[in-house]
């Protein structure tokens, strides 16, 4: 069932354009209006939401962190993202106007199940974003929005992550539509952008030979840092998690703006640092700030491994290696920039002779608290 791929993970990475396309499919009516009927939450309730709390663990929580930037921008609703295992134990402020979004590939993560139960006891409405039909989390939630990534077998999550971001974006646009935060044509523009992403993800996948070569040259790395800002920050966290899980290498993700507040002390000669560079377009582009971070770490001897949008020549001067991804709007970029990081972790683990589908000490779904 690996379809000719060396591992389930390789197959699932290759499946990502389809995971996004299938998650988008069938969500609009003939007039282009978003229809998320399966959510089963009354429109009046959705209109009165005054806070969103995303609860999830691991990679799913990073999908929530990416979505926060989009949903706050589109809907003007405050969004918190909380690890499910922390949520319940801090006496969170939850009311009938709180919408809790539980994101889970398996739908069986016990920490997330317990957080869903707690939220519902407090009167919140809960929507599950889940990849597994009929699993516990959607069954115990008020409504569900399924990701259509198809079964994910490899322990490390890849295609589910892209599908989770896609589904969260659909939910954000749906809320904006219901609440009148955006005009219909703006919403259809955003949907159009989303529909163009599978083709761009496929383009990224077509260029991963260079990442494979890079990873194989780094099989003896003992520590890798990942820096990003805005939506690139959760991508950095995800890149670090993939490398820890698969290649057993110490890895940390940081918000690039935090560098001078401490982590820059880690930089020494030969330290590999991945930098996820923001798009140049957009009103408040952080591009120049991240380019100067690249310069700062390079000046201290770091190996600068840069992920940037096509046509970005500014990064070349300070980059040891640049992986270019197609241009796209800022909020869509995580669907592209995470892919080289997934491939890097998988290939580095492969170079070390490790089993990428079954990393040590991990289970596909964590059904104990
Ligand atoms: C990372 C990974 C885990 C899961 C987390 C949540 O590659 O797979 O961090 O994302 O355990 O699992 P689900 O989404 O099934 O609730």
From TrEMBL:
Q: Where is the SIS domain?
A: 41-181, 214-359
Q: Which reaction does it catalyse?
A: D-fructose 6-phosphate + L-glutamine = D-glucosamine 6-phosphate + L-glutamate
Per UniProt, subcellular location reads as:
Cytoplasm
The active site lies at 364
Q: Specify where it is mainly localized.
A: cytoplasm
Major enzyme class: transferase
Annotated GO biological processes are: amino sugar biosynthetic process; carbohydrate metabolic process; fructose 6-phosphate metabolic process; protein N-linked glycosylation; UDP-N-acetylglucosamine metabolic process
Q: Which domain of life is it from?
A: Bacteria
Keyword presence, Transferase: yes
Provide the function of this protein: Catalyzes the first step in hexosamine metabolism, converting fructose-6P into glucosamine-6P using glutamine as a nitrogen source.
Keywords, alphabetical: Aminotransferase, Cytoplasm, Glutamine amidotransferase, Repeat, Transferase
Q: How does it assemble?
A: Homodimer.
Coiled-coil-forming residues are none
Question: What's the protein name?
Answer: Glutamine--fructose-6-phosphate aminotransferase [isomerizing]
Instruction: Give the residue range of the signal peptide.
Output: none
Q: Name any one GO molecular function.
A: carbohydrate derivative binding
Identify the GO cellular component terms for this protein.
cytosol
> EC?
2.6.1.16
Q: Which gene encodes it?
A: glmS
Per the record's keyword annotation, is Magnesium included, yes or no?
A: no
